[in-house]
What we know:
- The chain folds into two domains: 1-101 and 263-356, Isopropylmalate Dehydrogenase; 123-254, Isopropylmalate Dehydrogenase.
- Helix 7 links the parallel strand 8 (184-189) and strand 9 (215-220).
- The mean pLDDT is 95.
- It is α/β, with parallel strands linked by helices.
- The longest helix is centred in the middle third of the chain and has 16 residues, at 164-179.
- The chain has helices spanning 12-25, 39-45, 51-59, 84-93, 116-119, 164-179, 195-208, 221-230, 242-255, 294-306, 311-326, 344-355, and strands at residues 2-8, 31-34, 62-67, 97-103, 123-129, 141-144, 154-157, 184-189, 215-220, 237-240, 263-267, 273-277, 329-330, 340-341.
- The strands form three sheets. It has a ten-stranded mixed β-sheet with strand order 2-1-3-12-11-4-5-10-8-9, with helices on both faces. Strands 6-7 form a two-stranded antiparallel sheet. The protein has a two-stranded parallel ribbon with strand order 13-14.
- It binds nicotinamide-adenine-dinucleotide (NAD).
Amino acid sequence: MKIAVLPGDGIGTEIVAEAVRVLDALDLNFEMETALVGGAAYEAHGHPLPEATLKLAKEADAVLFGAVGDWKYDKLDRPLRPEQAILGLRKNLGLFANFRPAICYEQLTHASSLKPELVAGLDILIIRELTGDIYFGQPRGKRVATDGHFPGADEAFDTMRYSRPEIERIARVAFEAARKRNRRVTSVDKANVLETFQFWKDVVTEVHKDYPDIELEHMYVDNAAMQLVKKPKAFDVIVTGNMFGDILSDEASMLTGSIGMLPSASLNDSNQGLYEPSHGSAPDIAGKGVANPLATILSAAMMLRFSLNQEEAAQRIETAVKAVLAQGLRTPDIWSEGTTKVGTREMGDAVLKALA
Ligand code: NAD
């Protein structure tokens, strides 16, 4: 088993270092190789995703990714910006299924903006299709309108589209994932208005015939956005398209209080995956040793589960993280009165100790 380790920029290097220490401590037989990505790669090689980094990622069974980006790169041409590295990896590895769990740990319920009773014990999984939809649909661009409300005016347009195989494969991923959880899938669409999402709904319903043991419900995206803040625990697995998933997964992440706690995975059809925290490179706290490494450590646990087939090791890490929270240790982003404030390295140390 080979893991490509791509720490990236900002807090990326600090948090990935802790996840690597945790992986090392498991004493499993895998090889880890580190490479530059994002702004760090641009500085050294003039490109955010150098050939060598892409080659390493392609050859590896899994990629452990930190974060990329910094405001100082905002003036670069778009293809050279750090964030392009993520898009390049997604495209080249065919990572079409994005897993974003939203778990509210017992000890952190107060950090949520919702009432504790609404989020205590929350454990939902949002599965977002990652390579299609209006984000990638062609044609797109700017032109002069020839019809519509203002013929002759400048306008911009994008194209929302999904093909049958794209919907089928993400639906299967969702039903399979639900089998390992509470066997309920909510497919989120806008079938009442959009042709693309009426088709989405029809195809998901067809695929569901192969999964009679899974309960399927369909929900419009506006209602899903409401239900996520009204009764989030009613969900188990949510599956949706690229744009709705982008928005709903961020909404769901906030239910849990801290973005520093949330892992994510992006998988292709051979279970090769890219694992990263849901947050960015946090330039405001980079280098201060205060970033929360738990989202990255939990991403490493997801990597063991989904790409490396090491369920037991994944659970060991998750149990260790819960133990550390139960001990009252908190990085500043999740700190509250009565708990002990620790830095990135101390948090990593505590997880290692709990593992042992
Ligand atoms: P961000 O997620 O980096 O930070 C948002 C806020 O959350 C900041 O106040 C930050 O300090 C805090 N935060 C984030 N992670 C934390 C952690 N582990 N522990 C404690 N606090 C944490 O988002 P942003 O500020 O909008 O973006 C910063 C840079 O990151 C930008 O260049 C952006 O493009 C990039 N970005 C990268 C990714 C990625 O690599 N996948 C994702 C989002 C943003």
